[in-house]
C-alpha cells in the first residue's frame, strides 16, 4: 500500500520527521522517498512544486491525495489506516482530549523555539535587536517550563498524553529533540530530558533519525542558557 | 450534554469563534459561557488561569477534559459527538485529505495575517521597521493569492474541502472574515469574497458572529491595499 505514497523530505525538519515517524508506526514502510537538501535550495525545485505549491518540505502524497502539512498527513494516515500498526488516537475521551490539547500546544512550542534558534536566519541583519532576541528567549523559557510541569504531572515513563504512545508524541517529539540538539539542559529540564531519552530508543524514531544529526550530533548552543 | 461544557471567550478571536461554530454545528447549544474583555485584561484572570495556564482565550472544558487550543477542541467535539449535528469530517479519503490539508495550511494564513494586522501590537516601537511590515504584507499577499487560487479550482458554491461543510470551514472561515474586516478587497479576491458571502449566512456563523463586530462592522484598513 505504501508504494502509492511519495515523500520528499529534508533531514532534521520536524514536519518531515513527524510524517516519517507516523509512517513507521502505521507499518507503511516501503514508500517512495527522496532526501532533498535545504542548503542547495532543492525544496524550491519543480519536483517539490508539483506536490507542494509552497515550495516547502515535506511534500507528501498518497495516490492523488496531497498532504504537505505534517499535522494533516499524520491525522490522515491514522484515519485511513486505523487498524494497522500502532493506534495513534486513544479511545478514552480524557486521553483523547489531552492528546489533542498537547498536539496543538506544540504549535506554540515550535514557534517559540524557532524564534530563538532561527532568529538570525529569519530576521534580516538591519532589523535585528538584542532586545527582541532576549525577549524571544524569555518567552521560550516560560514555554519550556510549562512543558516541564506538564511532564512532572504525568507518571514516570508516561508518554505525552498518558500511558500509550499517541499522535501527541509523533508531533511533539521532533520539537523536543530539536531543543536538546540546540543545547537545552537536561539538568534544568529533567522530565523533558527523561522523555527525550525514552523516545530516542523507540524503533520508529531510531529508524527515522535525521541522517545529518547522526554525523553531527550537536547542532548549536543557542538554548544552552535557558 | 452541553451543560457539562464551559467556554470563556473573547469577541472576535478566531480561536474562540471556531469553537463556538463547532458547538453550534454539533447541536451543543446551552453550554456555560462567559464573554471576557481582552481590553480589560480579563483573559489574565484567575478564572481563565484555572482552565488555561497560558492565560489565553478560549478556555474550554467538557467535564474535566480541557481543550483550550481551538483545533484541539474542534477535533475533540467531532470525535465525541460524531453522530450528532453536522458531520464535520467527510468520509471519502480525497475529501478528508483536502480538509486536513486546508485546515493546517490555515495556520500559515493566520500567522501571516496577524503579522500585518497586529504588527504594532506585537512589535515594540523601538524594534519596528517599515521594511519588515512591507515584507509581511508581501508575504500575506502571496498567501492570499494562493487561497484565491484554491477557491478558483473548486466548483462555485463549494466549501473549502468540497461540496460538504467541514472542519476546514470551521477553522478557516474566522480567519477569512478577519481579512475582510480589515479591508481586504472582494474585488481583487472575488472567490474568497464569494466564500465569505456564502458562509456569513450560515446559521452557526450568524449565531456566533462576534458581538463587537455587529456594533462596529469595520475593523480597519490595514489590508485594503493588498
UniProtKB/TrEMBL annotation, chains A, B:
Signal peptide segment: none
Superkingdom field: Eukaryota
Q: Which GO terms describe its biological process?
A: glutathione metabolic process; L-phenylalanine catabolic process
Record keywords, A-Z: Membrane, Transmembrane, Transmembrane helix
Identify the Pfam families for this entry.
Answer: GST_C_3, GST_N
Q: Which InterPro entries did the record assign?
A: Glutathione-S-Trfase_C-like (IPR010987), Glutathione-S-Trfase_C_sf (IPR036282), Glutathione_S-Trfase (IPR040079), Glutathione_S-Trfase_N (IPR004045), GST_C (IPR004046), Thioredoxin-like_sf (IPR036249)
GO MF terms here are: glutathione transferase activity; maleylacetoacetate isomerase activity
Please report the stretch or stretches of sequence annotated as the GST N-terminal domain: 3-85
**Where exactly are the transmembrane stretches of this chain?**
159-180
Ranges for domain GST C-terminal come to 92-226
Q: Name one GO cellular component term.
A: mitochondrion
Q: What is this protein called?
A: Glutathione S-transferase rho
* Protein's organism: Esox lucius (Northern pike)
Q: What lineage, starting at the top, does this entry show?
A: Eukaryota, Metazoa, Chordata, Craniata, Vertebrata
Amino acid at each position: 500500500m505504501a508504494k502509492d505514497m511519495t515523500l520528499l523530505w529534508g533531514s532534521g525538519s520536524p514536519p518531515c520527521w513527524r510524517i516519517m515517524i507516523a509512517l513507521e508506526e502505521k507499518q507503511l514502510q516501503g514508500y517512495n522517498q527522496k532526501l532533498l537538501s535545504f542548503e542547495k535550495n532543492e525544496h524550491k525545485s519543480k519536483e517539490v512544486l508539483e506536490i507542494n505549491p509552497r515550495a516547502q518540505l515535506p511534500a507528501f502524497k498518497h495516490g492523488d491525495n496531497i498532504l504537505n502539512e505534517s499535522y494533516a498527513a499524520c491525522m490522515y494516515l491514522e484515519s485511513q489506516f486505523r487498524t494497522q500498526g500502532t493506534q495513534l488516537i486513544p479511545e478514552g475521551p480524557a486521553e483523547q482530549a489531552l492528546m489533542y490539547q498537547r498536539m496543538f500546544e506544540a504549535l506554540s512550542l515550535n514557534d517559540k523555539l524557532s524564534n530563538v534558534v532561527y532568529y538570525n536566519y529569519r530576521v534580516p541583519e538591519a532589523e535585528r535587536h538584542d532586545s527582541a532576541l532576549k525577549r524571544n528567549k524569555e518567552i521560550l523559557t516560560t514555554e519550556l517550563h510549562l512543558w516541564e510541569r506538564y511532564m512532572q504531572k504525568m507518571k514516570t515513563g508516561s508518554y505525552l498524553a498518558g500511558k500509550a504512545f499517541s499522535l501527541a508524541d509523533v508531533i511533539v517529539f521532533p520539537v523536543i529533540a530539536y531543543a536538546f540538539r540546540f543545547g537545552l539542559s537536561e539538568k534544568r529540564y529533567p522530565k523533558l530530558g527523561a522523555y527525550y531519552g525514552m523516545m530516542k530508543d523507540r524503533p520508529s524514531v531510531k529508524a527515522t533519525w535525521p541522517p545529518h544529526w547522526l554525523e553531527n550530533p550537536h547542532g548549536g548552543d543557542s538554548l544552552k542558557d535557558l
